[in-house]
Amino acid sequence: MLECVINISEGRDPGIIAALSDGLGDILLDVHSDPDHNRSVFTLIGEEAPRILTSTAVQLLDMTQHDGVHPRLGVVDVVPFVPLEGSTIDDALRARHDFATWATTSLQVPIFFYGPERTLPYVRAHAWKDLQPDIGPLMPHHTAGAMCVGVRPPLVAYNLWLENVDLVQTKNIASAVRSADIRTLGLQVGAYTQVSINLINPMNAGPLDAYDAVAQHSPIHHAELVGLLPAAVLANIPRDRWEALDVSKEQTIEWRLRN
User: Fold this and answer.
1) CATH 3.30.70.670 boundaries in the chain
2) Structural class in CATH, domain 156-258
3) Do the beta carbons of residue 128 and residue 185 sit within 8 Å?
4) Which residue, among 116, 96, 206, has the nearest Cα to 158 in the 3D structure?
5) Which CATH class is domain 2-151?
6) Using one digit for the tens of pLDDT, what is the confidence trace for 127-185?
């Protein structure tokens, strides 16, 4: 089984978010939308659902009209294929290739790959500078921009909100806690600042580790899990910390698959 966690550059218009969800049925496990990031994270199962969602997003959205605090290259910004139990990285690589071939042929949107070749942060930093698309047109689509299509193990996306901490200090905190397993950005999000985190090896460094690392530098106003997390990651967190860390069994991939 493959999971696909697509990041769409729209997090403010409930009507558009509902339209993006239409037709996905029970292969849509979760939607997390953020108006300040102007971004929605759709957790999907299989290979057909990403194509349905991508087609709708390219039809409805326009990068030239988009603004938000999160970096992005396109209306369908990130398309990672994630092997779950019973699947392998090779299965995910095949799915990535098939999706990219479809997207460039059907939608004429250029694709940057990440995974074995390079990291997603590398793509963001180098796209259209010294890095050209791996497949598809050699310039951005006029409304859809470009897509980052990848392969990765399960990760946890996590936000920690800080109050009365300015952006310079928040960026310094993000830098201080950054590691090989913890990728961070410091962002201004409305009246708050935020350490936006990707836990790329969550069995080694999970939400509890990230929370406690940031808390060494500043009080945390609240935590926010973005999307879902593996049950094994939740099992590493003491039950009495779940509420403060914004995690629960209902937010695990396994629970959503069963329910």
Assistant:
1) 156-258
2) alpha beta
3) no
4) 206
5) alpha beta
6) 999 999 999 999 999 999 999 999 999 999 999 999 999 999 999 999 999 999 999 99
